[in-house]
Write a structure and sequence with these properties.
There is one protein chain. Helices cover 38% and strands 14% of the residues. By secondary structure, it is an alpha/beta fold. Strands 1-9-8-7-6-5-4-3-2 form a nine-stranded parallel beta sheet. β2 (12-13), α1 (22-34) and β3 form a beta-alpha-beta unit. α1 (22-34) crosses α2 (49-55), α1 (22-34) runs parallel beside α9 (228-235) and α5 (131-139) runs parallel beside α6. The structure holds NADP nicotinamide-adenine-dinucleotide phosphate. NADP nicotinamide-adenine-dinucleotide phosphate (NAP) binds next to α9. The site of NADP nicotinamide-adenine-dinucleotide phosphate has 29 residues, from α9.
């Protein structure tokens, strides 16, 4: 059977990070790639695509680009894609952002995939209120990745979407691993994290990333940062050993 998995691995999110600052993008992306990151996620919504393209110049082959189409209009969607081809040459994972007009976008996206300009077609949503429609889109079997929120404070996806993704053999990309930073407000002490050190966890952000990737239904987690050192710290959490049920329960307790 064809191996459709993407990970488990840590990628890089770019929402509210370097925006159009190509110099900063070069530093953050460079640090993430050196530390083992292989996928960078962006969107027309974030204003980070041009700077990301500049950051990948000369090393485009070292990272897959996951970007999005974010518009109700198929004509404008094609324009967004045209700009992305100019920046990236090809888009490895092209996602319909927040399910916006997904039925309208699918036919032309499938044509682009057949022509080899798109690798996989994906779909995203951040809001649990939209998970019913996200499941409906997944069940068409016309999407090859799904991106959703998952962290110890946001576990709604465990009810329907993660089991469905497993059933369909669909790779799962996890957004908002830190709840936009909310989960990092209280940092557990070194002593509290001690039982996780044997699993390669040195810091609280790494504990949260490992908690996510240790769920076998997850492929890729994409923490966002504008800080090169944090990009390194996050990417380092993308390697085994993975947490077992006891260690995952500890992270859940520490996140309360
Ligand atoms: N609908 C969608 O498709 C959708 C929606 C939401 C998110 N996403 C994707 O998912 C990505 C991640 O989600 P998110 O950006 O909402 O939130 P997030 O990754 O959960 O949190 C980002 C926050 O965590 C901080 N941070 C990151 N690494 C850190 C570390 N090691 N130590 C301390 N602080 C750290 C960042 O601050 P600094 O920058 O200061 O480090 C930033 O404030 C987005 O960038 C985007 O690519 C997609």
């Amino acid at each position: 059977m064809e191996d459709r998995r993407l990970g488990p691995v840590v990628g890089l999110g770019t929402s509210r990070t370097f925006r159009d600052d190509a110099r900063l993008a070069g530093e953050v992306v460079g640090a993430a790639l050196e530390a083992g990151c292989r996928v960078v996620d962006t969107s027309p919504m974030y204003g980070s695509e041009a700077a990301l393209a500049a950051a990948l110049e000369g090393r485009r082959d070292r990272a897959d680009v996951a970007t999005k189409i974010w518009t109700p209009s198929a004509a404008e969607g094609r324009e967004q894609f045209g700009a992305q081809l100019g920046w990236f040459g090809r888009v490895e994972i092209e996602q319909v952002h927040n399910l916006v007009s997904w039925r309208e976008h699918l036919p032309w996206l499938e044509n682009e995939r057949a022509a080899g300009r798109i690798g996989r077609i994906g779909v995203t949503h951040w809001n649990a209120a939209a998970f019913g429609e996200l499941a409906e889109a997944m069940r068409t079997r016309r999407f090859e990745t799904v991106q959703l929120p998952y962290n110890p404070h946001e576990r709604e996806c465990e009810r329907e979407l993660l089991p469905l993704a497993s059933e369909l053999g669909m790779p799962v990309i996890v957004m908002r691993p830190f709840g936009e930073g909310e989960l990092l407000r209280r940092q557990p002490s070194r002593a509290e994290l001690e039982p996780l050190r044997a699993f390669g966890v040195e810091t609280w952000p790494q504990a949260l990333l490992k908690w996510i990737l240790s769920d076998e239904r997850v492929d890729l987690v994409i923490p966002a940062t504008k800080n090169p050192q944090r990009a390194r710290e996050n990417a380092a959490a993308g390697v085994p050993p993975w947490l077992g049920p006891d260690e995952r329960a500890l992270v859940e307790r520490l996140a309360r």
